[in-house]
Amino acid sequence: MEHHDEHDLGLAHDLKAMTQLASRRRALGWFAGASGAAMLAACDGGSSGTTSSTSSSGTTTTATPTPTASATATPTPTATSTSSTCVVDPTETNGPYPADGTNTSSGATSNVLTASNVVRSDIRTSFVGSSTTTAAGVQVTLTLTLVNVNAACAPLAGYAIYIWHCDRDGKYSLYDLPAESYLRGVGVTDSNGQVTFTTIFPGCYSGRWPHIHFEVFSSLANATGGRYATLISQLAMPSAACSTVYNNATGYTTSIRNFASVSINSDNVFGDNTSAQIAQQTPVMSGSVAAGYSATAVIGIAR
Questions:
Q1: CA-CA distance, 232 to 92, in Å (whole number)?
Q2: Chain-centroid distance, C-alpha 189
Q3: Residues 93-151: pLDDT tens digits?
Q4: Four-residue CA torsion sign, 109, 255, 185, 299
Q5: PANTHER family, alphabetically (predicted)?
Q6: I want to staple 139 with a disulfide (CB 3.0 to 4.6 A). Which of 12, 115, 219, 292 is the partner?
Q7: How are beta strands 292-301 and 184-188 bridged, if at all?
Q8: How would CATH label the architecture of 100-301?
Q9: How do residues 30-71 score in pLDDT, each as one tens digit?
């Protein structure tokens, strides 16, 4: 009996078998694609940013990705303004020359807070007693913004801030200069938590970094009553401004030598503060010796 190998059944048989095989493969491909897409969709839960479909010709196409929520969300802005970032100012000594009723000078207690005209924006002129001397020096317009650290740095209105500092020779009124009362004054914060003073750039005396003292009171009534301060602290004058003023302005000669021998890190007031505290305690200044300077600083308290 003649035996025929199954691999040699003739051309017609082979063509028929190839056609049937191709049809089965297309069907299997279609079902595999459909079931795979269904499985992917089920795993994705409908949140996938990419979808796939298969055309009737068997060609797979990819749709444009759908952006996810994280890709379209507005980025959180970096905190760069004083209204969005703040720290609690450290408590500092009010020093030996506060004139706030806490100490004496030449046997008498000095307390400018009880003076009827202590509330003033321009503090360059003496206002207690008979003297009306105006302190000489480079003009500084200082704006302080008082904020509540516990309420996202919200401004605090209606608070009183008392500031004082030495003159360009490093001397304090009512103490080194008993007849003078300049470079002292109180201001009340407005709806923006701000108060502005016109003063001069303080000199640098031996052993201390150049600074401005301040006391914060919860109300003007508390300020003028004295000894009710919510915060007693100091501002550190910027190093670059100190160098410029002391080396270029008239009357600051003694400050040149004193400033060369101090540093903010070794200062007995600022030296133990954190970098964030010192940054906030240091006013941002712009201007010149000839035109004067504008300065701004944030004061943070926890309410």
A1: 6
A2: 19
A3: 999 999 999 988 777 788 999 998 999 999 999 999 999 999 999 999 999 999 999 99
A4: negative
A5: INTRADIOL RING-CLEAVAGE DIOXYGENASES DOMAIN-CONTAINING PROTEIN-RELATED (PTHR34315:SF1), PTHR34315
A6: 292
A7: unpaired
A8: Sandwich (2.60)
A9: 333 444 433 333 333 333 333 333 333 333 333 433 333 333
